[in-house]
Amino acid sequence: MGVETTTLTVNGVKRVFSMGDAFGQVPYSETLLETLRDRLGLTGAKRACDEGACGCCTVIKDGDAVPSCMLLTADCDGAQITTLEGLADPETGELSKVQQAFLDYNAFQCGFCTPGIIMTATALLDKNPNPSEEEVRDALSGNYCRCISQYHVFEAIASVAGRGVELDEKWEGRR
What we know:
Layout: E1 5-10, E2 13-18, H1 32-39, E3 58-61, E4 64-67, E5 80-82, H2 97-104, H3 114-127, H4 133-139, H5 150-160
Parallel strand pairs: 1-5
Antiparallel strand pairs: 1-2, 3-4, 3-5
Helix pairs in contact: 2-5
């Protein structure tokens, strides 16, 4: 019987993992978050709640923003995975439009949850280049941040969508 493998394409690079309990193999119980951080050294996705509730570990899997702490690596066979590290241009290092907008609009503070928010915003804008405020709020509902005003996040996302920010009255004045 041959060794079972799991193949992922991570940030455009094909990765093949031997699955099992032997030394050097990926256990079937290992999460995608653990594989990304511990085996590939991709630390943009943060380990926080381990329950899929906070959004800090968000990556893009086959076009969808997903909590990597809730996915087993073995269940991701054949998937296209993009992490925060995969958003910048690999040759020039130029940041993605979303990453640059977060810097331009100061849409971060401590930075712990920012990668997950950026990944969620990127997946949203890839699917819907001009989302409404309600669609942005809905997409970000699984990302929690205690440090920053959400206004700056909405402003950054709106700038990438090519329009100004139009917030309802309850958000006005919270900048």
